[in-house]
Structure formats: structure tokens, C-alpha cells
Amino acid sequence: MTMEKIVLPDIENLHQLDVYLKNGGYSAAQKAFSLTSDEIIDQVKKSGLRGRGGAAFSAGIKWSFMPKSNDKPKYLCINGDESEPGSFKDRQVFEFNPHQLIEGTIISCFAIGAKVSYVYIRGEYHKWIKLFQKALDDAYANNFVGEGMKQKFGTDFSCDIYIHKGAGAYICGEETSLMNSIEGKRGYPRIKPPFPAQSGLWGNPTTINNVETITNIPPIINKGWEWFASIGEPKHPGTILFGISGHVNKPGVYELPSGTLLTELIFNYAGGVPGNKKVKCVIPGGSSMPPLRGDQIEGIKMDAESLKIAGSAIGTGGVIVMDEDTDLVKVLARIAKFYYHESCGQCTPCREGTGWMLKLLNRIVRGEGSKKDVDLLISVANNIDGNTVCALGEAAAWPVKFMIQRFRDEFDARVKDEIMIPVLNKVHSMRKTANPLSPVQN
Amino acid sequence: MPHFILDGKEIQFIQGQTIIEAAAKVGIDIPHFCWHPSLTVSGNCRVCLVEIEKMPKLAIACSTLASDGMVVNTNSVKALSARNAVMEFLLINHPLDCPICDEAGECKLQDYAFDHSVGESRFVENKVHKEKRVSLGTHVMFDGERCISCSRCIRFCDEIAGVNELTFINRGDKVTIDTFPGKELSNPYSLCVTDICPVGALTSKDFRFKSRVWDMSSTKTICSGCSRGCNVEMWVRNNEILRLTPRYNEEVNSYWMCDEGRLNTFKSVNADIRVNGPHIKRDGTLVKAGWDEVFALATSELKSYNKSEIAVLGSAFATCEENFVLAKFAKSVLGIKNIDFAKHEKPNSGDDILIRDDKSPNSFGAELAGIHPLKDGLNFQNIMRAIDEKKIKALYLVEDDLVSLDEDYKKILSKLELFIVHSSNFNSTTELADIVFPAATYAEKNGTWINFQGRIQKLLPAVMTVEMDRSLDGMAMSRLDKFGTEFDRWGKSKKMNARPIWKIITSLANALGTKYKYQTSEEIFDEMSKTIDLFKGLDYQRVGELGVKLNVTTLAKVKV
Ligand SMILES: Cc1cc2nc3c(=O)[nH]c(=O)nc-3n(C[C@H](O)[C@H](O)[C@H](O)COP(=O)(O)O)c2cc1C
Ligand code: SF4
Ligand code: SF4
Ligand code: SF4
Fold first, then answer.
1. With contact defined as beta carbons under 8 Å apart, do B499 and B439 qualify?
2. Number of H-type helices and E-type strands within chain B
3. Which of A181, A355, B206, B460 is 20 to 30 Å apart from A337, CA to CA?
4. If you measure CA to CA, which chain A residue comes closest to B173?
5. What is the CATH number of the domain that holds A426?
6. Among A342, A356, A378, which would you mutate to test the B interface (most chain B Cβ atoms within 10 Å of its Cβ)?
């Protein structure tokens, strides 16, 4: 089956500038400069392109939030922090198609009126930072970026692109935290409003988009929005880079039209489960998204709307497959550990709640949990959900809530009716699990 | 005016105000830890989550702008359970040190736990442990376990003190605050962080473990450290001042005060070197004497000099009332012209925040009350010169340690034949005196000071002298004052045999044959308001707790 690939076409050495040029590289930019920025934004809006960074928000609408006036500098941030467990698709762009990202960046900058763009790359991505820097250097040397682009494209617009290396914090992938990080501040998310388009980098209008989102821009400009809108699911069109991992024979990144069946992805593209074991659980969009039961994945399409109906979300398209022998309690404890470790600690529910959930889960894993602890876990997750500064709160709460909700039997099998916990406090040598006497309502 | 509905009540607001601000303006406190009216909004504690109609998620009242017709609920099931949840989260790792915590009694966490918590903990895990005794700087101690990471202290340093001295370090529930490597929390306002810390995480080294807050009385008065005249609360237990805290007055000091004022102004009141009862010099040393004896001596001595041989020095530390009575006494009883007071300027010691160069609280008021040379009279410098030249032989000085101002004055003052001093403490100036009247300190009397802005502000007594009684004189009372008994170990407080200047001058005037009838400081103020233009229409009531700015246009003509 041949399928059109938009972000990662099967062209050898496409990462090299000459190969990219031979395949029509930078012609979309040339075309874009003959359009007005409003026309570009309109095209992107009509194309239906939705963000690939997790929230699947319309890219065109996001751009239209940028003020038209030029009294303040404007910025574009490209989010390549890619730290969500199960997500490893943006690095493919840095490695295999960096110029399309660069081209997308200059078109996007032109569209929103930004003279500077920061590409924020996850700190651990040493290799990909180098690869992308090489491509960027080539683009600069050949006047596709920077002052030289004015002459190259015959336009009076120019912009600069800088790579900003992260320092190992997942939270810096959150858009406002990312901006603080670029500003040299502690990676704390900001409260919204004001939204980045009103007050972003150094208080100036800023747009933040995912690497994959921006890489989709040049083909949309080149081939027109109608073409893009006709690919995949109409409400979430285009291709999606699915990074599939876990218990599959051929883990990797597959670019497929949105709406591809989850089962197709697992059993066809990723080669099925080793040993032909049954699938117990699938997390469809990176570790923060609600897990699905393996016996319920039949017919589920991989796009934002379909997954919402199925009770999960597309997230970053990072699909994690777990076979029937997987210990989901341990899995959840490991996921909880990640969000505990990555909570920035700014706001109360996430700072305190992530640690609490981890402690509860670890205790259950050790066989020291009670039935009440499982309920307590859900209650703690509910108390975090929706009450935090940024969406890491939800990212930490959802897996707990939904894993327990959908695999309650696994948890119940691991806990006792009642449990005695040795307490370090010397005064009380033994204490019963506290009664959630007054359940906090949600 | 636009309005919104808060728990069924109509609240008016100004465009641009947040829900919490607008509510606070009409005296409704929406629970909050991190929000502070003088700091930027950080929105991190999440305790002010409220339910707003037509909004899908709860919103934080501290950052959500009020809008016309908005319907806000702080007590809906959703809002209530979120608040309970946040309180539970805050408490799970909290050490609950309340019984030994300085903050207990004025702790937001305690108060809100009482008001908004379920009362039972569902947390049975081990708590997160952090450093409990971290010295952040000369004055401030940090307890990491009590910290609720509200960032108020950090924002205070950044935004008010203007120095980035504090920061968060680590992540998640390991977050704690720290100074930068090798640096200290050392700004001149560092102790303000202990006021705004909503819990007992930041404490004053000076005050730590000194007293439970409810065992102290607190009196609304003024700091004596400089001509800013920061509004303060003076906290007293067992008739001893234990701490000063800033009292909100937007016109003067907002919520703040400097460390110097907070720490180093009140200690002299508690000091062991207080002048306790009148003293006269016998055989070269000051010895205690009775009031009548000293009045008699002072009267006869003063009478034995020519008017031109006497000078009177008022004080920028004394009240307006005291300076007024003193000036009146000098002019009409002693009939002299050499009247002035010493300035206490320390050039370039002030800043753009609060601290002023003028290290006295009332130079403005002293001058206004009449402490300045009469026509042909000598000013302060000339008085000192005249003493040096032995032209002036008798000096009457109130509340000013001149020798501390200039060592050279010691030699000059030694040349005096008669040196009468009012002083609260023994010092190198009183050493030279022939008669020392024990002066009640600013903490022991009523009166007014005028700050550098021309704002007249009221002092209230917080500490009793032997002539005062806490309950009879309407002074602030603590729980101990009300319910403590003679048998409590703290029941036997130390009281000074000291009097305010006006009272001593009144006695002296009477002894010299001029009838002065002043019974209270307030009576003097009322006389001033009749005789001094700038005070027209003022009385203690009108001066109130926050003071009154004197008429600026007239002010310009007054030399400060
Ligand atoms: C905790 C957290 C981590 C995130 N990490 C990333 C990330 O690594 N990469 C990314 O593109 N978006 C990440 N996001 C989403 C961004 O905040 C933002 O929505 C996205 O970059 C917008 O791009 P898009 O509209 O093109 O999807 C994260 C969000 C949260 C709450
Ligand atoms: S939700 Fe978590 S990560 Fe986000 S701001 Fe709050 S503490 Fe930080
Ligand atoms: S900070 Fe408040 S709640 Fe915590 S120990 Fe001190 S008084 Fe108790
Ligand atoms: S020390 Fe106090 S003021 Fe500072 S962050 Fe902690 S709780 Fe807030």
C-alpha cells in the first residue's frame, strides 16, 4: 500500500539541503512570500491542520490570535521538547527532514509576523540537536534563513532561527514553561490568561507550535489546503506520526493518515504482539492519556475526535502497547513516578498530589495496600484534575483515574481488605489505614 | 459602576480588578495564601479556586478579572471541595509544628485549616522531610517543612526590595527556597518576608521562640527609626517589647518596614540602662533623688542664671506636644531666646523604598511646635559655640544624646555650669548632666510625630510606667494581661519611674510660678490646634490610626 507521506517522505538523504532542494525544497516559502500573511493563515485554517503537540488545537486559529500590530516584537517557538514517555516522533523530523521544519518555520514566522523563532529541543537529544544545527547552518549559509533570505526570496521579510537546548525537564515542554526556560528563568508554567499570543516571550506576542505541526506547513502552502483537508479524517486531517512502542514486534515511527485503525497500526504496521499474546492495555497518545482496554480497541480510529469518543485522546500519537502479562499496577506506579519526578512543584495539588499517588501506588505494589487505598487514589487524582496551573496536573491524574477505572479488577486483586501500616512515628507504633471518613466530593 | 455577584452579594468593581481584589476592597476575604495585594499574582496555591457560572473549570479568584454580571461562588459544592482538596494537599506533608511554631496564632494555614478543612487526614504515608533550620541571612531563619511554596518571599525580594535574593530550588514536593550560592538574604528589608510568609517557614531570629502571639498585646504606633515614621504594631508581653511588625498604611510604608527600625529601635526601651527615677549629681556621680527634691533643685538653679546664659534644646525624638510645651516654657517661663534642636541626618543612608537620611522621627514636628531660635536667639550650632565660649552656662536638653552625635560635644558640654537633661537611658550625655529627669520613651506615652511627608501620626503607649495602668489607661491588652494573675511567673513586670517631657515641664513651670494645667497630651494637642495654623481643625480622633497629611501648600513655607 503506498500512502502519501507529508512529514517524513521516503526520500533518501532528504535531510541534505541539495536533496531537499531537488525535491522542491523551499519552493513553498517562495510561494508564501507572494501571499499576504492573512492569506497564509487562512489557508492553514482551512486546511484543518491541528496541533501535533498534544492538545490538537487548530494551528490556523492559534495563529489568528496573534495581534496584527507591530508595536512589539513577535516570536514563534517551535516545541521539540518531546519528553512525554511514549513520544519519539519529533526527533525523526530533526534527523530525516530538518529543512522542511526550517521552511515551515520561516513561513510561519512570516504568517504571524515574527522575526525570531526559537526551536526548543529536549536537552537529552544531543544527537538530534547536532543534526538540526547542521541543517540550520546549511540553510543560513545558503541564505534560506537570516538577512540573506531577503535577496534569496526577493522579499523584504527576514527572520532568524535559534536552537534552544532544554535542560532535562519535561515541564519545559509546556508552552508557558518553555517560554520561561527560554527567558532563562525557572521552568515554571505561567497562569493563563494572559495567553502567549497576548503576552509570551518577554511579554511579547508569541505563538508556540509543535515540530510536527510546523513541518506540515510547506506542503499545505505548496499543494493547497483542499489537498491537505482531504487526507484522513476530515475533522483532524493530514497524516500523523505515530510512535508505537511496548509489546510490538516492530516498534517505531509510522506516518499514517489520521483515522487509521488502532488495530491496523498495532497488528499490521507494528507487526503485532510478540508471541501473539493478547493486548491487555493500550495508551494511544503518550503516557498521560487515558489507557484503553485491549479488549476494546477494535474499531477505534486514531484521530482526536474518534479517540475522544473512545474515552481517550490523541495526545502526541505515542502509542504504548502492553500485552496480557503486563503488571498494570506496576505500570501505573512507574507512570506516576514519572509525573511525580517531573512536577515542577509550583502549584499545590500537583506538587503534593503526585507524590501522594506515587506513595500509595508503591505501597500497593509492595502488597501493603487496602481497598480504601484504591478509592483514595481516585479521589486524589480527582482532586488534582482541573485544579492546577498547567496540564501536567491532568497528565498525572488521568492515567491514575482511568487505569484504575478500566482495570479495577487488577488493582483489587492486589490489595487487602484492611491493612496495618507501621508508622515511623514513635508514639503510635501501629495505625490502621486512615478512614476516608469525609470523602471529598468532586 | 460595573458589578458582579459573589455568593449572592453584589460587589462593585473597577475595570481591571480581579475577583479577589474587588472582594478584598469591600472587606470580603476569599481564602488565599500566595496572593498579596502588593505583589504580582502568582496563582500557585490554588486555594482561591472559585466557581464562576458559565465557566467549565474552576478559576482562581486572584487572577481572574471581574466582569460585569459575572456570578461567582466560593461555597458551591465544587468550589468547596476544591478548597478542601487544596487544604488537604497542603497539610499532608506539613509538619504540624503548631505547638512550637512562632506563627501559631497568626498562621493562615492554621486559620484556613480551621475554616476550610475536613478535619481528618487521609494521609498515612511518611511525610516529606526537609531542612528545618536554614539560616537565610543575618535575620531570617527558614524551615523547609513548614514552607507551602507560595513564593511570596521570593516576589517580595524581587519586586519590593528590588534584589533577587531568594529562589525556589528542586522540583515537585522537594521544592524549597534558597539563596543563591554564596549569597545571603541581606536586603535592608529582609524581615518583611517573615511578615508575609503565610506560615511559620520564615521566622525572625530576633523573635524566634520568644512568645506565643496571643500572650502579647499589640499596640498601633509609629517606628522611631527615621523620618518615614512607618506605622507599626508594637508587641508587648510582661511589659517588655518583644517585636515590632509593620502596620499597613499605603501612604507611608505600605505593608513594610526596614530591619533597622524593626530590630534596633525598641531595645532601648527594654534596656537595663534606663533612667529609673530622677537623678542628681553628687560628688561627681549621678544618684537617685525624689521628684520634689529634683524639681526644687532645678527651679532654684535655673533662677540663678541670666536669660542670655540659658539655652533650651528640644528634640526631634520627642513628641510635638512635648516640644510645644517645652518651647512655651522656654519662651514664657524662662523668657529665653536660645531655643533649637539637633538634627540627626545621616547623608546617603536613605533609599528609594522607605529609609530616610533623617534618623529622627519628628524633626518636622519639633520645628512646627516652636522649637527654633527666637529673633536674635542662637541656633543649635551657635548654642554649642556659646557653651564652648562659656557664654551660655546653663543648658536644658530633652531626649537627645548629643555626644553620640559628635564626640567633640563632650568637651563642650563639660564646660556647662548647669546641665539638665531629660533622658530615658543613661548615656555619655547624661554622664555630664547635673540633673537627669527620667523620660518616658515613645513606647510609654501618647503624642504625635510628623514624618518627612508632613504627615502627623499618633503614638500610643504600649509599655506601662509606674504611673500608668494597662487596663485603666485603655492600653492594649493581651490574653495574659486580661487573665494572668499576680501569681503567674510573668505577672511581675518591670515598670519605669519615668514621665513624659510635658508632664515634667508642667511641674517645673508650676514650681517657677506659672500655672500650667495640662493633664494629658491630648489637651496640649487641642491647644496646638488652636494656635498653630497647620493643626487647625485637628484632634486625636481625626489623626486616628493612619495619621493625617498636613496642608501641603502651607507646608512648603515651613523649613524642614
Ligand atoms: C506538561 C506538558 C508537557 C508538554 N510537552 C510538550 C512537548 O514536549 N512537545 C510539544 O510539542 N508539546 C508539549 N506540550 C504541549 C504544549 O504545551 C503546547 O500545547 C504545544 O506545544 C502546542 O503546539 P501545537 O499546537 O502545535 O500542538 C506539553 C504540555 C504539557 C502540559
Ligand atoms: S500542575 Fe504541576 S507541573 Fe504544572 S504548574 Fe502545577 S506543579 Fe507545576
Ligand atoms: S506554619 Fe502554621 S500550621 Fe504550620 S506548624 Fe506553624 S502554626 Fe502550625
Ligand atoms: S517561605 Fe513562606 S513566603 Fe516563602 S514560599 Fe515558603 S511559605 Fe511562601
1. yes
2. 18, 23
3. A181
4. A351
5. 1.20.1440.230
6. A356
What separation in Å is there between the alpha carbon of B178 and the centre of ligand 2? Answer: 20
Q: Is the CB of residue A15 less than 8 Å from the CB of residue A99?
A: yes
What 3-state class would DSSP assign to A316?
coil
CB contact (8 A) between residue B171 and residue A435: no
Assess whether the C-beta atom of A396 lies below 6 angstroms from ligand 2: no
User: Of all protein residues, whose CA lies closest to atom 2 belonging to ligand 4?
Assistant: B197
B148 lines ligand 4 (CB under 6 A): yes
- CATH number, domain with residue A62: 3.40.50.11540
A154-163 pLDDT, tens digit each? 999 999 999 9
Q: What is the rounded distance in angstroms from the CA atom of residue A15 to the CA atom of residue B448?
A: 80
CB A318 within 8 A of CB A252: no
Q: Is A395 on the interface with B (CB under 8 A)?
A: no
pLDDT band, very low/low/confident/very high, at A436 (cuts 50, 70, 90):
very low
Span from the CA of B152 to the centroid of ligand 4 (angstroms): 6
pTM of the model: 0.94
Whole-angstrom Cα distance, residue A129 to residue A119? 10
| Structural domain harbouring A290 | 239-323
Looking at the CA of residue B107, tell me the nearest atom of ligand 3. Answer: 2
Which residues in chain A are closer than 8 Å to B47, comparing Cβ atoms? 348
Q: What pLDDT, on the 0 to 100 scale, is given for residue A441?
A: 42
CATH topology of domain B3-92: Ubiquitin-like (UB roll) (3.10.20)
Q: What are the residue ranges of CATH 3.40.50.740 in chain B?
A: 279-442+498-517
Nearest CA to ligand 3 atom 8: B98
How far is residue B136's CA from residue B157's CA, in Å, rounded to a whole number?
Answer: 13
Q: What average pLDDT does chain A have?
A: 94
Confidence at residue A434, expressed as pLDDT on a 0 to 100 scale:
44
**B124-270: CATH number:** 3.30.70.20
Q: Are A388 and A394 in contact (CB under 8 A)?
A: yes
Overall domain count for chain A: 3
- Tell which wins on pLDDT, B9 or A438: B9
| Range(s) within chain B of domains with CATH label 3.10.20.740 | 3-92
Atom nearest to A214 CA in ligand 1: 26
Does residue A385 lie within any of the structural domains? yes
How much is the pLDDT for A428? 39
Residue for cell digits 530633652? B398
Distance B153 CA to ligand 4 centre (A): 6
| Interatomic CA distance for residues A421 and B124, integer angstroms | 8
Q: Are residues A180 and A290 in the same domain?
A: no
Dump pLDDT digits (tens) for A222-270: 999 999 999 999 999 999 999 999 999 999 999 999 999 999 999 999 9
Q: Which of B47, B98, B148 gets mutated to test ligand 3 (max ligand atoms within 8 A of its CB)?
A: B98
The helix or strand, by DSSP H or E, that contains position A160, with its residue range, turns out to be strand A160-165
Check CB contact under 8 Å for A436 and B84.
no
CA distance A361 to A384: 16
Q: Are residues A150 and A298 in the same domain?
A: no
Q: State chain B's mean pLDDT as an integer.
A: 95
Within an 8 Å CB–CB cutoff, is residue A351 touching chain B? Answer: yes
Specify whether A206 is located in the same domain as A302: no
Residues 144-203 of B with CB under 8 A from A: 148-149, 167-168, 170-175
Q: Are residue A335 and residue A297 in the same domain, yes or no?
A: no
- Give the CB-side neighbour count of residue B369, counting CA atoms within 13 A: 35
Answer yes or no: is pLDDT of B297 > 70: yes
Residue A148 and residue A276 share a domain: no
* Residue with the three cell numbers 503506498: A2
Whether A173 is in the pocket of ligand 2, judged by its Cβ within 6 Å, is no
**Residues A263, A283 share a domain:** yes
Higher pLDDT, B555 or A169: A169
Contact: B45, A348; criterion CB under 8 Å: yes
**How far from the centroid of its chain's Cα atoms is residue A121's Cα?**
13
With CB atoms and an 8 Å threshold, state whether B119 touches A438.
yes
Q: What is the mean pLDDT of residues A331-349?
A: 98
A389 has a chain B CB within 8 A of its CB: yes
